[in-house]
Design goal:
Dna Ligase, domain 1; Arc Repressor Mutant, subunit A; alpha+beta
């Protein structure tokens, strides 16, 4: 729980029970969950939690740079607590999302530009599905 509180404080987000619980879930479940995934996982222990609250907390976390919003899936936005520079791979067979290392872009590759955010998405088949 202290990791979640530290992250919230470092991004100038006031810790609340809901913010801590949602960020803690993201930190402990690196599955790139959707709003529905988070809501369904937390609702049994937080029955007063609404889906609207989950949306609002996630929007706040994304806007303040504490969490990434991934639009790799055309149906749902997924969320990632790993804000380091990395790419994502979506298996077109099983639908799982995976983190991939990403080559970093340097100023030499982008002269005159100030890059603030990069999203790299790959699609294909994961190793598990290729074995089937």
């Amino acid at each position: 729980m202290t990791e979640a509180i530290d992250i919230l404080n470092s991004h100038n987000i006031r810790p609340s029970v809901q913010r801590i619980a949602i960020l803690k879930y993201l930190l402990e479940h690196r599955i790139h969950p959707t709003v529905d995934d988070i809501y369904l996982a937390l609702n049994p222990t937080m029955p007063t939690l609404s889906k609207t609250t989950v949306y609002n907390v996630l929007r706040n976390l994304v806007e303040n740079g504490a969490v990434l919003a991934l639009t790799i899936d055309e149906k749902n936005v997924r969320y990632d607590a790993d804000i380091s520079s990395h790419a994502h791979f979506r298996c077109q067979s099983c639908g799982e999302l995976y983190d991939l290392k990403q080559p970093t872009m340097s100023d030499e590759n982008t002269p005159g530009f100030e890059i603030e955010n990069v999203h790299v998405y790959y699609w294909g088949k994961c190793p598990k599905c290729m074995k089937k």
